[in-house]
Every structure is written in structure tokens, then in C-alpha cells.
Design brief:
- By secondary structure, the chain is an alpha+beta fold.
- It is built from 13 helices and 30 strands.
- A hairpin with a 6-residue loop joins strand 10 and strand 11.
- Its cofactor is FAD.
Length: about 550
């Protein structure tokens, strides 16, 4: 059958292949920016499944851009902590509820199909629609634009010329294979049986727990209605067989330090915890996001969250390029930034998996002693919580290993770090909601006095605002005392990206200098304005 050629009177759309949470998030963000999008998926429109169930604080911050964070937060069960047990002893806990620099100090436990329903509804509100049972079967990336061949359920085919193409089609990505990109990996596969079902027993209702002993490893997460996600390590398994309730119950009896009876399972599968990363996240005008770009152990529930980070990182850059507010070279940073982040997650989840599977008494004793020591000193909360919540993701160009992403001591934020987000008390110009707010479609300049504000400071801020706005919003955040820990005691201008990460820090409120800085970090240079410089700073 000869494929029909797609024709349109408008510009070529961005084609998103894959309509899981990651694909729909990036489609929503682009549509929100008035970018034409088509999103296709080989699967039926509704599939009851529940692979990814945990959304961490940073993901909720990011999906606030597309207007679904609050509805998701109301839909799911809030997880206040993640606790670790060795035998019958509680080693320590990561307490999300103690996070003070995010409006979402909790994890969110929700079946994936419910998460998808919320995002799909928003997609429709923004003018989009998932084209279900429509598979990408071929991709020609040799010309100036990618051309995809799509096949529908009835066998009819269509050739689509896209302005850009985004592969969000999972670990077996057809997009990745068509582009000839290798899926490189290391380490042996680790098998986990996972399922959802009712649990009866004295189990924590607001915590996710990991239990380790000589009999295996098990993780439990509450959905809030008496149903739990249950996951346990299994040595071998036939992929064609669904793990039965008896397998999970045996592991509950053997591993979990609470009496728990499992009811009828709603859904089960076996998950192979592979470590794989695509050799490239970009090929010309094609990008890979989510599981199409990287997969790793399910420990810590990082997969969907890492994919959402991919989606927002790419969406603001691609949307800005198409709207003319961001220089096209910014797209070159996607691979480096998200590759480093994925490799960090892969390392951390692999370490957690291996620690949970140790059996030798000496190694178990060492692991337990290290976790207890970290709990007693506060290091567990201070260092591990930002990693699991993904609040510590850092896009600085010199970050070469995971240690560089950890804030070992309090110091002013630097380039690449996430700007903290606080819940406003409403006293800053009557503003309500997460604060300080930054523009979600262009770079924002935040001014910080580091101390007292006076007439001269206000004049400098006003002049800078006149010189840079409306192309780049300028906001004075000096009245917000919580930022002192993060911005320091000296005056500065902080350039913040649309995704809330810091692009540059300048010690002077100088408009001419900031124009140079904005151009360097990728902001499209606006026309000159009458006020080119703020008044000179006092000596």
C-alpha cells in the first residue's frame, strides 16, 4: 500500500511518537506555547496499567508549567517519607515532608493510568488529541526535515513531514532503532515482580518502604485506598507468565517486618532492571526522551520522573527556538544536560538495588552501619533526599560525576542549579502561590540586594527593568528572607531559565553586561531599548 502524503496549510507540526506521561507532557508544553503538535501512539486509547506510580516533588514543580500539578496532587496519595528496613530494624528514612524549598514536600503515589488521564484531559484542553493505534513504522531523517511513515489499525499508511520529531516511545523505541542509535548498557539484568493489590496489616499508610533481609528485597507504596504497589526481587522468571499472588505473599512473609495479607491482585508483571542509555539523545531534528533514551532500575521510582525532566528540558528549548525567543544552539545542550542526569540516576538506582540484594553478613552489617550513621549525622536527609526528590538536578557544564550534584555545604547557588520554590504568604505585592515566579517561556532576571534596600537600589532595579522588559522580565526578590541561604549576602542579578534552573549569576545590575550574558546563555537578542544601563553602583 502506498502511504498517503500528509498535507497541511499550516507549518509542519512537531511529531511526538508515544503518548505515555512523558510524551503527553512535552506535547502539552509545546501546545501551551502555541506550537502545532501531533502525538501518536501504537497502543489503544485507554490501557489499565500501572508501571510508574510515584511522582517526586521536582516532577510536580515541572508539570505545573502545563497546569496539571494541583489536580495530580489531589488525585494521588501523598508520601511523606521513604523508610528502609534491614530485617526487623528501621535503618532510616528520607523525609519528604521536611523539604522546605518546594511547594510539594511529598511524593505522590498514583496508578499510571490515572496520571495519564489527567494529562490527556489537559492535552485536549490545549487543543491536542492522541492519535491512538497509530504506529510509526519508518522514519527518514536524511533530508532537511524528518519524514515519518505512520500506520493505523486498519492498515492504512500516511507519510508525515515534521518540523521536529520526538521519540517518547519507550525502551523498545522504534524511533531510536530507525535512527540507528545504539542502546548501550552495562551490568546484568535484575528481575523484579511488581503488582497492585489490597494489603491488610499494620503497614505505614503515608510511607513508601524498602525491606531487605537474607530472603530478598521488597518495596511497598500505598495508594491510599488500602491498595499497595508491591515489588519483590525474583531470581529467574519466564517473561510470558504473570507473577501470581502467592509469590508476593511468600515474599511478604519472608521479608517485610509487619504481618501483611495480600488480596486479589489487580495487575502484575515482571520488570527487568536493565541499565541502558542511548548513544545519542539527538539526531538532526529528532530527539529521544524518557525510556527511549534511558532505562534503569526501578529502585527509587526514578524512571517516569527522569522522563518528565527530559520533556520539560526539551520543551522550553524547542518551543523557544520555534517562537524565536531562544537561540537554536540551546538545543545542543539537551543531550549533555539530560545525559548527565540520566547517568546520575542510573548510578544511584543501581547502587540502591545492589545494596538491597547483598547477602553476606559482613556486607549487610556495613550497609546497615553506613545508613544508620548517615541518619544520625543528618547526612541521609541532607544528601539523599534531594537526590531522590530530583531537586538536586544540576545542569552546570562542569558537572562530571554524581558527587558534584550534591550540596555538601550551604553556599550561594551557582549556574545549573535549581532555584528554590517557596509557598508564598502573599505579602510580596499580594502574590499568592509558589514563589518566586519565573517566566515559563523566556529567561527571567531576578535581582537580589543581599541586605537592606533603599532608594538607590529601587532605582537600579527600575532602570534594569526598563532596559530588559518585556523581552526578559526583571523581578526584585530582595524582600524574600528565605532566599538568603541560597543567594548569599551580596547584591547580584540571577538569570533564570524557563525551567527554573540558573543560567548565570552576575554581581552587578548592569543592563549592557546582562544583555551580553543573556545572549551567551541562549536568549534571542531583543531590539535595543532607551534605558541601556542602570545607574552606576555605589562604591
Amino acid at each position: 500500500m502506498t502511504p498517503a502524503q500528509h498535507s497541511t496549510n499550516g507549518p509542519d507540526p512537531v511529531l511526538v511518537v508515544g503518548a505515555g506521561p512523558v510524551g503527553m507532557v512535552i506535547a502539552c508544553d509545546l501546545l501551551r506555547q502555541d506550537i502545532p503538535v501531533r502525538i501518536v501512539d501504537a497502543a489503544p486509547s485507554t490501557t489499565i496499567h500501572s508501571r510508574a506510580v510515584i511522582m517526586w516533588p521536582r516532577s510536580l514543580e515541572l508539570v505545573r508549567r502545563i497546569g496539571v500539578a494541583e489536580e495530580l496532587a489531589e488525585t494521588g496519595k501523598h508520601i511523606d517519607a521513604v523508610s528502609y528496613y534491614s530485617g526487623s530494624k528501621r535503618l532510616g528514612a528520607i523525609e519528604m515532608s521536611r523539604l522546605h524549598d518546594t511547594p510539594y514536600p511529598f511524593g505522590l503515589c498514583t496508578p499510571q493510568w490515572k496520571t495519564e488521564d489527567v494529562i490527556r484531559k489537559r492535552l485536549v484542553e490545549l487543543g491536542g488529541q492522541v492519535e491512538s493505534e497509530t504506529a510509526l513504522v519508518a522514519l527518514d531523517n536524511s533530508g532537511d526535515r524528518p519524514v515519518a511513515t505512520l500506520r493505523r489499525r486498519d492498515g492504512s499508511e500516511e507519510r508525515v513531514r515534521a518540523s521536529w520529531l520526538i521519540g517518547a516511545d519507550g525502551s523498545h523505541s522504534t524511533v531510536r532503532k530507525e535512527l540507528g542509535i545504539e542502546f548501550q548498557g552495562q551490568g546484568a539484568d535484575v528481575l523484579f515482580a511488581i503488582g497492585d493489590g489490597p494489603l491488610d496489616g499494620p503497614l505505614p499508610q503515608d510511607e513508601m518502604i524498602y525491606c531487605y533481609n537474607a530472603g530478598g528485597a521488597m518495596g511497598l507504596a500505598p495508594f491510599g485506598d488500602g491498595t499497595f504497589r508491591v515489588a519483590c526481587s525474583v531470581p529467574v522468571w519466564n517473561d510470558e507468565d504473570e507473577p501470581p499472588r502467592e509469590l508476593f505473599q511468600e515474599n511478604l512473609n519472608r521479608v517485610v517486618p509487619f504481618p501483611a495479607k495480600l488480596g486479589e491482585l489487580k495487575w502484575t508483571t515482571v520488570f527487568r532492571a536493565r541499565r541502558r542509555t542511548a548513544a545519542a539523545f539527538r539526531a538532526g531534528r529528532c530527539f529521544l526522551v524518557g525510556d527511549a533514551a534511558h532505562i534503569f532500575s526501578a529502585a527509587g521510582s526514578q524512571g517516569m520522573n527522569t522522563g518528565i525532566q527530559d520533556a520539560i528540558n526539551l520543551a522550553w528549548k524547542l518551543g523557544g527556538v520555534l517562537r524565536g525567543t531562544v537561540d537554536a544552539r540551546v538545543l545542543d545542550t539537551y543531550d549533555r544536560e539530560r545525559r548527565h542526569s540520566a547517568e546520575r540516576v542510573s548510578l544511584v538506582t543501581a547502587k540502591q538495588t545492589s545494596w538491597g540484594l547483598v547477602r553476606q553478613p559482613a556486607k549487610v552489617a556495613l550497609r546497615d552501619a553506613l545508613v544508620r550513621g548517615a541518619r544520625v549525622t543528618g547526612a541521609f536527609q541532607r544528601l539523599v533526599t534531594p537526590l531522590m526528590s530530583q531537586l538536586s538536578v544540576n545542569y552546570a557544564s562542569d558537572r562530571e560525576d554524581v558527587k558534584a550534584d550534591i550540596r555538601w555545604r550551604r553556599k550561594p547557588l551557582g549556574v545549573g542549579e535549581r532555584l528554590p520554590v517557596f509557598v508564598s504568604d502573599g505579602y510580596e505585592d499580594g502574590e499568592q502561590g509558589p514563589w518566586p515566579a519565573v517566566a515559563d517561556d523566556r529567561f527571567t532576571v531576578l535581582t537580589w540586594s543581599g541586605g537592606a534596600r533603599g532608594v538607590q537600589w529601587e532605582a537600579r532595579c527600575a532602570a534594569l527593568r526598563a532596559a530588559l522588559a518585556p523581552h526578559h522580565p526583571v523581578r526584585d526578590v530582595s524582600a524574600w528572607p528565605a532566599l538568603r541561604e541560597f543567594l548569599g549576602t551580596g547584591p547580584r542579578a540571577v538569570v533564570v531559565r524557563p525551567d527554573g534552573h540558573i543560567a548565570a549569576v552576575e554581581p552587578r545590575l548592569d543592563a549592557a553586561r546582562l544583555r551580553v550574558v543573556l545572549a551567551r546563555v541562549g536568549a534571542a537578542r531583543p531590539e535595543a531599548t532607551p534605558a541601556e544601563e542602570a545607574p552606576a553602583e555605589a562604591a
